[in-house]
């Protein structure tokens, strides 16, 4: 079975450019998470969706960051304009909710998108 | 506020040694879940275990074992007879409440290096 698929795996861009990261969750999973990993701050939850609806975006750093989930099989995380401090590995993860909307905490992670902003 | 502390930044052992990774958590909730994830060199995090706050039984899975003690707010992870393939970064995580199980707060991780 295919796992969580993220693209691109590596992105190098210049400050001010728009960056779009993409994620395809595991088929049948109805929760999707975006995490950011840096040496300084560790793993931070940016936003998560249940059934394509954003539930908690309190971790999104600022207005330059936006995330969408137009359907159950696709999500994007956009940074516009990008800054050097956005350099990090961005992980997408998905999970399955029980009926009633409860999760299990077992998240399936993609391999991450390593972003470098010069 | 919830918090997870992994005081050990990096641990190095020689193959076949036992190693314990420490995890201390803070939460005001009476219902919560604790997790361990492994991040191998390939990058993706892999789920290892989940415990809920009402189940303090220790768990063993092969060479892995977990010790949950509410009295000390700790959820430690022991690898017995470590192997080179165990080399990875290990994260402890916490989620609060009965319905936010998937909203995980991670510790800063412990990098384990197992040398042959």
Strand and helix map with partners:
The complex is a heterodimer of chains A (118) and B (116).
Chain A: E1 5-7, E2 10-13, E3 19-24, E4 31-38, E5 42-50, E6 53-56, E7 65-71, E8 74-79, E9 88-95, E10 108-109, E11 113-117
Parallel strand pairs in A: 2-11
Antiparallel strand pairs in A: 1-3, 3-8, 4-5, 4-9, 5-6, 7-8, 9-10, 9-11
Chain B: E1 3-5, E2 10-14, E3 19-21, E4 24-26, E5 32-39, E6 46-52, E7 59-61, E8 64-69, E9 74-79, E10 88-96, E11 105-106, E12 110-115
Parallel strand pairs in B: 2-12
Antiparallel strand pairs in B: 1-4, 3-9, 5-6, 5-10, 7-8, 8-9, 10-11, 10-12
Features:
heterodimer, A: 118 residues, 4-stranded antiparallel sheet, 0% helix, globular, B: mainly beta, 6-stranded mixed sheet
Q: List the secondary-structure elements of chain B in sequence, H or E.
A: EEEEEEEEEEEE
The general outline of chain B is globular
Mean pLDDT across every amino acid position of chain A: 93
Radius of gyration of chain A: 14 Å
Main sheet record of chain B: 6 strands, mixed
Taken from the alpha-carbon principal axes, the silhouette of chain A is: globular
Separation of the first and last Cα atoms of chain B: 41 Å
Spans of chain B of at least 5 consecutive residues whose pLDDT stays below 50 are none
Distance from first to last alpha carbon of chain A? 36 Å
Q: Helices and strands of chain A, in N-to-C order?
A: EEEEEEEEEEE
Output the structural class of chain A: mainly beta
Main sheet record of chain A: 7 strands, mixed
Mean pLDDT of chain B: 92
Number of helices of chain A: 0
Q: Quaternary status of these chains? A: heterodimer
In percent, how much strand structure appears in the residues of chain A? over 45%
